Write a sequence for this structure.
């Protein structure tokens, strides 16, 4: 798994802290709410002790759930397998895929160390899709471009893909998932989730 995709998940949750409010559009404002919640969780001294690790992760996941479109991410990742699935199978996959992302990516949020963020652009189309582009400046002064794809649902904007240096999280998983049968994929996802 690319280290840049791992970084991207961390940056996704924490990048909007430094965007001036006057520049932020509706998708950014809603993601900012999630970001503020996560920052407050990872910064809370009462949640920093090892015995609070499970509670801290639960709160982070709860905050992330408010802004992620897990079903859309699952559908796009599963691609050709999705249409063939029953409603029950789809629910199971959404759950397992969410847990996989939680284990692989969301835990990186706790490693936030104040990277600098530059806002580049935001676009929203008439079909209810948005595109947010930012640039991360690491402590080593490396520039990492990050792109968030969001989809409007009701009054909310929900993330359905993250790209880091042009590498899409969803495309990455889609390529992996297409190489195996659905049964094998589910077995592997269950095994990874069971490793907690």
């Amino acid at each position: 798994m690319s280290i840049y995709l791992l970084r991207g998940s961390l940056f996704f949750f924490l990048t909007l802290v430094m965007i001036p409010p006057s520049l932020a559009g509706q998708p950014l404002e809603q993601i900012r709410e999630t970001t503020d919640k996560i920052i407050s969780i990872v910064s809370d001294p009462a949640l920093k002790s090892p015995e609070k690790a499970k509670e801290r992760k639960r709160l982070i996941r709860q905050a992330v759930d408010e802004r992620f479109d897990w079903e859309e991410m699952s559908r796009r990742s599963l691609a050709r397998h999705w249409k063939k699935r029953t409603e029950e199978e789809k629910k199971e996959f959404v759950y397992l895929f969410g847990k996989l992302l939680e284990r692989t990516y969301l835990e990186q949020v706790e490693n936030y160390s104040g990277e600098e963020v530059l806002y580049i652009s935001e676009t929203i189309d008439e079909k209810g899709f948005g595109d947010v582009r930012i640039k991360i400046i690491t402590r080593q002064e490396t520039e990492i471009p990050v792109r968030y794809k969001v989809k409007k649902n009701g009054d909310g904007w929900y993330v359905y893909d993250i790209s880091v240096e042009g590498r899409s999280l969803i495309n990455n998983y889609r390529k992996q998932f297409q190489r195996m049968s659905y049964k094998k994929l589910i077995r592997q996802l269950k095994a990874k989730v069971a490793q907690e």
In short: The first helix runs from residue 3 to 14. The chain has one domain: 3-194.
